[in-house]
Amino acid sequence: MILKKLKLENIRSYKNQVVEFPMGRTLFEGDIGSGKSTILMAIEFALFGLGSEKPGSLLKTGESEGMVSIIFESGSKEYTVQRHLIKKANKYDQDKCALRFDGIIESYSASEIKEKVLEILDFNEPVNPKAKSLIYRYAIYTPQETIKEVITQDADDRLQTLRKAFRLEEYKVAAENAKTVSDKVSRRSRDFQINASDIPQIKERIESLASATRAKSREIEDLEAKQGEKKNLLNELKERNDMLQDERGVLKTETGKIETLSLMIGDKKKEVSISEKKIVELGSRISLNEHKITELKSLANPTIRSVEELQSEMKQKEEKERELRTVEAQIKSKLEDYETILEEKVCPTCDQEIEADSFSDKLKHKQKELDSVSERVEEYSKAVAKLKETAELKRNYDQTLVTLDELVVRQKEYSDDLTVHKSKFSEASKMIEEHSQELKTAKASVLKLNTVESEIAKLKRSVDVCVDELAELGKKIERNKADIRNWEDQSKELVKSLEIKLGQKEKAEKLNDYSMWLDDYFSPTVELIEKYVMTSINMDFDAQFQRWFGMLIDDPGKEAKIDEDFTPLIQQDGIDQDVSYLSGGERTSVALAYRLALNSIVRKVSTGMECNLLILDEPTDGFSKDQLGRVRDILDELNCPQIILVSHERELESFADQIFKVRKVNGISTITAGN
Description:
The chain is an alpha+beta fold. Helices cover 66% and strands 15% of the residues.
């Protein structure tokens, strides 16, 4: 890294200051308190942030905002970092942090811009914004007071500080982490061992469940055998019940016929009764018809002429008289018919008895009609009376012949009906006898049905008992199976738990091996490596320290070296001297030699670190003129491209390629180039 330019605004005693850093040796010279250390603080702040410093220690008193901007070169590339400090309500904050590269400006937070700078410089260390850059502090710039503190502090504290500087803290961190991991692994192993401690009990419980399951299985086999016997018995009972049910069905069918047969017998008896009455009635009608037929056959024919002939003769009369007489003859003929019917009391057409009162009314009506016509044609009545009477008699005779034919036909029908009814009577009587026999058989079935019903009821009770016993056996079997399922589920869970615990036991053994490896092998190896590296660094550090101390102190009797705790040991003529009893110049020489050795070692252990910048703060405090001359030799020996010296010693001006005068007037510091 090479510094190019630094710009300060409201930083401590600086109001507005720009410093351009040339290559070679640059001296910032000024009185104590003039503002020289502020330049170094500003450079570190611009690159890595505040670290452990408080914002108020950088911001100019009375100002609410300050800014530091630095331009530096790394890997032949130029970067600009800018940081702002802002005070609001007595609170300080970093704001407007920016990085410029290749003409592009990007804004970042305070932690982000530190991470970017560490990445650019290839400093492999944490990005914690509150931590200082140890590589920068011990490889490039180490304040003089810090070196004195390192030299005089307790050995353990100094070793801890140097571990950080030499990047050896990682070994300790690795060892501590290994211890932490080992403890965690050990605890985890113990946890697994505790979790797996009940494996014997689980195995015993699994075997117990298996034994109980086998016993239950045998019990189920016995119960299922009994269940099979009961099922066979139940099937036999059901088969017997089916047979009885079939028999009962047949008997019920027979007994069901009783009512039907009784009704059928009653119907047949009614038919017999009706047939008997019909036979008597038809016999009476046949006898009556025979009498009427005999009577009608005895009647004589009144004339050989037909009615048509008589009427033809009457038509020979005067047309009107014939018509009147015809009407009169017809009326009289009707009257004679009515009278004949009334006398015989039987219809000559249907041969049925008639009602006398009804025909009397009709006769009276016709008589009135005849009297009316007779009055009009009285003169014709006598002429046609005889003809009409004869014609009427002839007509009656003809009607009698018709009636006689009807009576003969009806007589035949009566005879046929009589034959039918006699056949029905015979068939009904026979059916009565057959149905009576069937009824007797059905009544016998009723008695047998009662016995079957009793046996079915008894059989049903046996079936119910068998079903109940089967149900109870089924419940016992199901309960046992449920127990087995429950035990199997428990066993499965226990097996799963056992597998897990066996796995945990195996893990516990592995983790225990890991813990032993970490404790017995890894950690001791890390400590051994650290010790070896530390010894190697100590030897190199001692050589560097002796070299620089030898260049600063020209006293053959005075020797300096570094012990194993990196404590500087000074001997005068073989006698140990306490550093605190050395002269001011000697103590400064020890500090500078220690500082240069430390810078050299840190540069070596910091991968990617370029040895092109060195900042020395008050390196010659208390030096004699002779020692100051030797500083020139040391600077020549260092051969660093860019060295920045900060001192109030004017004697160093001859060592520098460029000189900057730092002055403070009225509380404001300024920097000017000088010779």
